[in-house]
Write a structure and sequence with these properties.
2 helices, alpha+beta, Nuclear Transport Factor 2, Chain: A, globular, about 100 residues
Length: about 100
């Protein structure tokens, strides 16, 4: 099943392009609950992927329905999320 991506105008506030956001979804290293799925962020997801130049991006989104997501935040990945990229990378290495 392909997921359709819709973009809230706020997703472009930090200068990340639609093409780079789509590329981040294709290169996702982490995709999970934002803030553990608790509190006011309980329906928000965090994705860490890469732009077309290989720079890590943080993307926040929520589901509109089972086949559509809404991206509302995209920016250069902040240091406090870098460990999520490394964690998954380490998990890949353990499975090789």
């Amino acid at each position: 099943m392909d997921i359709s991506i819709e973009f809230n105008p706020a997703a472009f506030k930090h200068g990340v392009s639609e093409a780079d956001i789509r590329w981040a979804f294709d290169t996702a290293r982490y995709d999970g609950w934002f803030n553990g799925g608790e509190g006011p962020a309980k329906d928000k997801y965090l994705l860490i992927g890469f732009d077309r130049n290989g720079n890590p991006l943080e993307i926040l989104y929520n589901f509109i329905d089972a086949e559509t997501i809404n991206v509302f935040h995209a920016m250069k990945c902040r240091n406090n999320y870098h460990h999520l990229v490394q964690t998954k990378k380490d998990n890949y290495a353990k499975n090789d």
